[in-house]
Amino acid sequence: MLKLKPVTGMRDIMPEEMVVRDWCVSKIKETYSKYGFTPIDTPSVESYENLHSKEGGDNEKLIFGILKRGEKLKLEEAKCEADVSDSGLRYDLTVPLVRYYSCHKEELPSPFKALQIGNVWRADRPQKGRFRQFTQCDIDILGDPTDLAETELILATSEALCNLGFKGFAVRINDRRLLRATALWAGFSEEDLEQVFIILDKMDKAGEDSIPDMIEGAGYDRAAAEKWMSLYGEAKVSEDPVGLINEKIGEYREGCGIDELKEIMGCVNAVKDDRYDLVFDLSLVRGMSYYTGTVFEISMPEYGGSCGGGGRYDEMVNRFSGQSVPACGFSIGFERIIMLLMDRGFKIPDEKKKEAWLIEKGTSPEKLSEIMKEAAKLRTEGRTVLTTAMKKNRKFQKEQLANSGYEEIRELFRDK
Amino acid sequence: MLKLKPVTGMRDIMPEEMVVRDWCVSKIKETYSKYGFTPIDTPSVESYENLHSKEGGDNEKLIFGILKRGEKLKLEEAKCEADVSDSGLRYDLTVPLVRYYSCHKEELPSPFKALQIGNVWRADRPQKGRFRQFTQCDIDILGDPTDLAETELILATSEALCNLGFKGFAVRINDRRLLRATALWAGFSEEDLEQVFIILDKMDKAGEDSIPDMIEGAGYDRAAAEKWMSLYGEAKVSEDPVGLINEKIGEYREGCGIDELKEIMGCVNAVKDDRYDLVFDLSLVRGMSYYTGTVFEISMPEYGGSCGGGGRYDEMVNRFSGQSVPACGFSIGFERIIMLLMDRGFKIPDEKKKEAWLIEKGTSPEKLSEIMKEAAKLRTEGRTVLTTAMKKNRKFQKEQLANSGYEEIRELFRDK
């Protein structure tokens, strides 16, 4: 007998959600295509080496390994996972993109503007709203060292969210180099930075006031934490936070991206309308260690967490292929977007009226042909016509169809 | 260092192909949705038990197993694959669909008309045009025992192919029960049928004349083979092949689907136009053992092999869940369709003109904002405007962009 439920942590998509997902994918593709992003696809499976390259951070602990096959699988000699597995399911779209770009660089335009929408897999502990298979939706620009890349990514991603019906959201922006500079200025020592940033990253949930305690509790410099928090507080209420920090941190400002930040924010603010805000946020860290410059994140008022994020990762292509290629990407939190839309009972705009025809069993071949001809004609005209066998329990069948969005239902009996 | 190539047997999709794939998916979805097929999705991963349920035939030998994780993985005690793997990648969309339907039956309309487009994985020996990850595109009707299901599947699938620009193809149809009946009538014994059908299935490639030799060589009845081939030959040139077989096979005709075949063909022929043909073909077998009635297959004149197929599989839901539900499906050979389109240099119809703006490094923030505003305005009007950093080798960059379909290229210098 069949196991009826999906495997642990993964889920079936029901028709009403799938229609919304398809609509979102098509809106997103339409938007990004106008910006010149070209769709690509990479295999769901990547080599063991690439997946364990250290670029994935904690995600590398969550890889679904794929079993070696045939003669390669020597169970009796196997000591560890790597003995029985030489590939696995991708946990993100960034590592495959960097492999793709490195492999096909000669055939691709430069800068290369890529759009990838695809599934990724992580063996996370199953919990509400978090699944082991989920869709990611990334745009990336490879080969552009200028802040035009950031500007484009922010404009395009925000536009895509607006086209999905979202507004009033904030794109938060920071620069890892500026974050570093302010932390050093505040008195943290170089070697503590990584751990300090992990704590700062929790500010959203833990609250600003608890940061100095948390930093001290973890064994780092409380005075530095308080100095940094006071700068953060001042910047937060300033009309020109980047300018304020620029003045405060003195010689630490060198090469920390202040000019770029100003340019990006200036340009985005000049182009964007009031459906969303671009906000500088010195406390924005973004988890992944591969970021080298700007980082961004989308905050939706109706949803506490992040609905997307990204940043610049100029060193990853080099670490992978030995060729230095600047890179920058922005990812929409596709599953969260879908969850928000489903929660608010989203209906696809301008959806056409659908009709269902119930055909009684025993209808003569001649009459059936007439019915099907008429249906075909209406479909050619763009209408949706479901022709289906009439069930014994017509009342229930009609209710089900009404629930599936069929506004008009015709009953076609065999003898009429 | 990164492994630059995709894992063995899988492939990266380049932008020019991806655009065609996206266009096809959207055309197919649009067509099927007019027929009332609803999109669904199932996880790429299925349980070991479901994948090894015997419904997959030879595909079960090609499963990519997924390694158990954490404490569940006991390598030192492992004797066989099942000890180290409790799930794997799906090798088709039919087994997951039957699981899905069995799991969610109460929430789904009946009959349920499902559309699934998704990747499947098979560890086939890599060869030209055959990959270990590929996209399948299936429609299925569950819960309709009448031949309205077949009629709908054939009309919808053919329409989808026509909407992709194909014409002059043939939908071949047969009924497994009729094939059985004619084989028994010809003198084959019940227990030889499965093997005999495997040989008949090779007629396309081996040629009709070699069938009796092949059957005799495999140890089966040559006289029966000759008798069957003579019936096949007569039917092939008859104007009413089904009627002819009906007359010939006498009492063997009972319950072998002749009336249904006539009805399906009558109705499809009445509705369809001349862009494709529906052809009865007594030699059509279709590989999978789960088919219980009608089988169909698409032949394209420009491509020797099959470009799609399907049939009725009324017993599979029952074998899986103990509930008897009639089922019937039709699958488009998505990868072959794409290959045919790419080979003929297919261009997406009515594609809008695309323009690219090259922006010189050092352009002032004010000017950059003006440029981006203008681009945003044009995009709102529906135009595709790629804004990108100007490279040092402008000539090469412009060539690359022209190759990517950018007809108009503007060069925006910083001092103009």
Describe the protein in words.
- The structure is a homodimer.
- Helix content of chain A is about 40%, strand content about 20%.
- With about 425 residues, the first copy, chain A, is α/β, with parallel strands linked by helices.
- Chain A has 2 domains: about 15-345, 2-Layer Sandwich (BirA Bifunctional Protein, domain 2), CATH 3.30.930; about 355-410, no CATH class.
- In chain A, a hairpin with a 2-residue loop joins strand 9 (about 295-300) and strand 10.
- In chain A, helix 5 runs parallel beside helix 12 (about 260-270).
- The longest helix of chain A is centred in the N-terminal third of the chain and has 20 residues, at about 15-35.
- The radius of gyration of chain A is 26 Å and the shape is globular.
- Chains A and B meet through helix 1, strand 1, strand 2, strand 3 and helix 3 of A and helix 1, strand 1, strand 2, strand 3 and helix 3 of B.
- Would you tell me the structural class of the helices and strands of chain A? alpha/beta
CATH hierarchy class name of the largest domain in chain A: Alpha Beta
Largest sheet of chain A: 8 strands, mixed
- Number of separate domains of chain A: 2
Strand content of the residues of chain A, in percent? 15-25%
Largest interface: A-B, 112 and 111 residues
Can you list the strand order of the major beta sheet of chain A? 1-5-6-11-10-9-7-8
CATH third-level topology of the largest domain in chain A: BirA Bifunctional Protein, domain 2
State the end-to-end distance of chain A.
Answer: 44 Å
Silhouette of chain A: globular
Number of helices of chain A: 16
The CATH architecture of the largest domain in chain A can be named as: 2-Layer Sandwich
Give the strand tally of chain A.
Answer: 14
Q: What is the quaternary state of this protein?
A: homodimer
Radius of gyration of chain A: 26 Å
